[in-house]
Amino acid sequence: MIQHIVDYAGITALAASGAVVGIRKGFDLFGIATLAVLSGVGGGILRDVLLDIDPPSALQRWPDVTLCVVVSIVTTVFAKAVIRLGRLVLVLDALGMGFFATSGAAISVDHGASWFAAAVLGMISAVAGSIMRDVVARDVPMVMGPDDMYAAPAMLGSVLYVVIDHAGAQWLAVVVGSLVATLLRLAAITFHWRLPTGPRDLIAHVHRHPVSPHVG
């Protein structure tokens, strides 16, 4: 039961972030709903495929996709107010990421995954939907670009869930994992915390002199 509550909270937050991206891109209602669905359930579907859950629970249960569509409609109706909140998509994304990091790990544990697999699948649940959203919207995925930390908070949240759940405190594991992942992501956005990238002079050189894919 607890996993479903956390799962729906994550779906709602991530679907709203996808709808906001669609609105900003000028997509029609179908396009906005598509981004909302990809953001909201894409990570969960990939997690279920890797867990050999057939069909994935997000497609087996009608509320998951329906919730994404409803969220996209509500977000579109209040589009003007949403667009004025410039950082809303990042905040919603952080909330959804935190929820999914723990719910993904929890569902993986329930299906017999090892602690390592559960931690990895928790991170995948948290970031895969946002990657799908950004690819379809023709943006560089936040998790892949030189932006503020994204995958690292998700991984930390899922690891914390696995460790605390192993001690027998599932509710505490959900609260701590979700809270730490979300707050770390929001702190990264606020203070521009980033993981190291390649040497700046080398990156600038590559941009000035790109390597031809046909060399050799």
From TrEMBL:
Biological classification of the source: Bacteria, Bacillati, Actinomycetota, Actinomycetes, Mycobacteriales
Top-level taxonomic group: Bacteria
Annotated localization: Cell membrane
Protein's UniProt name: Membrane protein
Pfam families: Gly_transporter
Positions of the Glycine transporter domain: 5-79, 91-165
UniProtKB keywords: Cell membrane, Membrane, Transmembrane, Transmembrane helix
Coiled-coil stretches: none
Sequence similarity: Belongs to the UPF0126 family.
Signal peptide positions (record): none
Membrane topology recorded in Swiss-Prot or TrEMBL: Multi-pass membrane protein
Transmembrane portions of the chain: 6-23, 30-50, 62-83, 90-109, 115-136, 170-191
CC terms in the record's Gene Ontology section: plasma membrane
